[in-house]
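ping. complex inputs:
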Amino acid sequence: MNRRQSFVCIAATTLFTAAAFLFFGLRYPYHIHYQEQLQLFQFGSDYFLQVTSVPGGLADWCGRFLTQFFYYAWAGAAICALLLCLIQVLTWKLAGRNGFTTYALSFIPAAFCWFHLCGEHSIPGALVALAIALAAALAVSRISSRKTALILYPFLVPVLYYICGGLVAVYLLAVPVILCRRFSFKVIVPCLIIVLVLGAASPLVARQLFNYPLKRLILGIHYNRYPHMVAVWMWLAALSVPLVCLVKESVKARTDALTGWACLVGAAIFCVAGVSLNSDREKEEHMCYDFMVRYGMWNRIMMKADMKNPDKPFTVCCLNLALGQSGRMEQHQFEYFQNGPQGLLPDFMRDCTSPLPTAEAYWALGMVNTAQRYYFEAQEAIPDFQKSARCYKRLAETNIVNEDLQVARKYLIPLTKTLFYKGWAEKALAAVDDGSIGSWPEYSKEKALRFKENDFLFSDKEMDSMLGKLYLENRGNRLALDYLISYALLGKDIPRFAEFLSLYEGTPLPKPYQEAFLLYWASSHNGPEGLPDFISRDVLNNFQAFVTGMQQGQDANQLGGRFGKTYWYYYYFRFNG
Amino acid sequence: MKKLSIITAACLILSACTEKVAEFPIGAAGPIYPDYMDVTVPAGIAPLNFCYTAPGLKDVETVFSAGGKEVKVKGTKVRIKEKDWKMLLAEAAGGDITVKSSAVDSSWAIHVSEDGIDYGLNYRLIAPGYEVHSKMGIYERELGSFSQRPLLENTQFDGCVNCHAYNRGDPVDMTLHIRGSHGATLIRKDGVMQAFNTKTDSTLGFCVYPYWHPERRYVAFSTNTTRQGFHVGQEKLIEVFDLDSDLQVYDVTGNQVITKPTVKKDSLWETFPAFSPDGKTLYFCAAQAKPIPAEVTEIRYNLYKTSFDASSGTLGDDVETVIDASSFGKSVSFPKPSFDGKYLMYTLSDYGNFSIWHHESDLWLLDLETGQSRSLDELNSPDTDSYHNWSSNSRWVVFSSRRDDGLYTRPYISHVNADGTFTKPFMLPQKDPAAFYSNLMYSFNVPEFVTGPVPFDKISAQKMINSPERIQFGFRWSD
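pong. complex structure:
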């Protein structure tokens, strides 16, 4: 490579790393946070031994160690970018640094790794596994002593299998390509046979020792959060490395520059197109809402909803919680898309994400046991059986409020072994032990909100009854009243709404409540005569205009312009489920 | 080399212990955790390691003595070497190991019984949760050491595993349920394991609670339509209840489930079958059917028995009430006759049959000779004491209790004296019990004694579970 090409190499690698950093930091930050909340990395030998006691465990442990920094999105973005850079550089070095084409193609494995990181359930530890295997391959291929290289190459196979798992394949396949440059086939072939035998034997032996199906022992126990899913992009990355190494042999020096430029442009297009296709904006949005709910960013949720109205039960649930928590639900709920009572407190689903905002809503309402169940179930539903620091924190809190302090301790102790939850956990643990935790304001408040007189079995079919009891036990639980009235409104149960309205003591009556009341009134009266004075003249005039519009046969689109943010519009044109 | 040293040092720093916190439950009763003061242990038990609960102790010395020999252990975490412990047990067989400590005013004793105990325990480790399950498995623990090995874990298949049962602790005969998309009941007899579909057109559903007949040909099962409910109040979390249940006996040789209208009544929910040690009587619990969940707190199970003829595989027409618990507002679960035929241990709770989630659940003992029942106050705690099992010689019982922290069940073992009284129970020993039980986020579920290591081929079991092939249970009515 000439000096100009060397400069291009440095620039392209830097650009690639910067692009990855900006992508994860700006476009994909909530995927970063999402990864962090689905694990509970603990410092300590117990956790280390637990994670590293399976093939691929050491790489996985390193991956988990790095993932804990995803607590901060930009730190996570930097780690992802550096891992991708590392893989690209290692591939380049392994393939042979003096070819421009090889350099250009060295972005292909890294690009596959980037695609891998775009998946919500892809495990960063897989990149660590690949990097370790590549580093080992590079080290062996650079050993000057022929004898040492030929002994070390097979010897490292089972060791690397245990460290990296199935991605040791990159080592198995790439090293002989490199060694072929130095040794004759007569030397390489017997060594290769030994290596392949060891490579095949490693998972077979592991099968006897570890409780995993052979398929997982070959394809990787923990490259993807779902055990039955193969980390396809990582495997393509691993398999592409020996191909990149082979290319070096076939490209002639004369055409290297031209081919190299073509490959570089092609790799860039491939990378951009692949990332674009594999990144999931909708999931990123969901994760964003979940993140904001986690940290109580109620105003940010509403600002986001103002820019793009959420329309999925998950995001609508987050928005409604934000409206409720900021005291805006009664006034503004129907200015946003609503999808029925499911947007308020969605039914439980067996996954590790969707129960979390609902759990936060139950926690905010004071339904501590239900919140605890949702947090616990969300955590149990993490497909790779990891625990969640986020859930542990909340589970400690639900147990503190329920005065199950021994159980709270069990959740707090692991949190004291983490990096970012340690401070809080140690304070909470000390307060649990000295008996002062109950006086912490957040838990005093939660205790005041929770059920005290009633115990019955949770029933999602009797949500209004539960919310009603919650409010009647504590008239200060304003959120319970908001949710109670909203539940009736969203379910279009106008008689129940009218019943619940008697619990409302504020003045003036919020506009949506006036609108709903007018529907109630209209169902039993022929005109506005005798209408209570809490109905404003403006709302009444609007209602008359809406009724006129309906009578004239105007459809949803025609009425939507003026009445789209009224309860009447929701009642007639939204949620017909 | 220098780089390697740096990496090693970094790893050590990363895995270094953080600031120490008390690992035992705060307010743990007694000066040591687990409370091993004045307990009775079998001669083959693993070392009873413990720690002192008082804060700030330093330079503590604990002296164990038996038969003129002494073992001294220094520190607040008392770990006795296995070799020393075995020596102490051998010296104290039929007598006491005396324990003196510089941290506790008076000495205490560990009584060593001459009654042998079985090889080990089998249990399921599962997080005490609701409907979703994370990692779980069936594990075998050798009682003479701290060794635990997994028999089957749900990393091997998609689903959950439960209700393992052996014939009087004999590890050769075994049943095991797999739930989920690979649902099956694994039954091993005479060393051959097969996967069955236990649901038939003539029965309610899949087989649930198993109990082996002593002659090894039959397994009694209940079949239950079970649901969960979740309390909103502070005291209780979960309610598990049946919407229906029946009893049936599976003929392993003929591959048929046998039932009879007397144990398959619509108006009665029959569950928890258990054969008497002579195999001629089938005990079971049953409750009058009531609207669920509205009257869930009114469901109360009595203990009944009916006759069983093993030669013809027939259930008798007689159904006799053994304990009319509903008459005094209680509910019976987990009836377990001792294998010497003297006693029947059961759990008594306020209502329902899932007593493991009831804080008020206590163990009771029925003397089968006198017909008198008594609360096992020497075993019970203020919290849940529920599932239990007898050792094969009926000299020991293991039971699960939530007394430690109110949520996580831990196995406790107690010796059965000749007069039918029980010694103070001791928690299953661990190498570092405070750290072990503090870090373990699983409950010990269904602890069962086994008389030897369970010969379990996990690879073939895994293949069997993941394969869609199931042998279909046949059905016949009992004569």
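Chain A touches chain B through 55 residues (CB under 8 Å).
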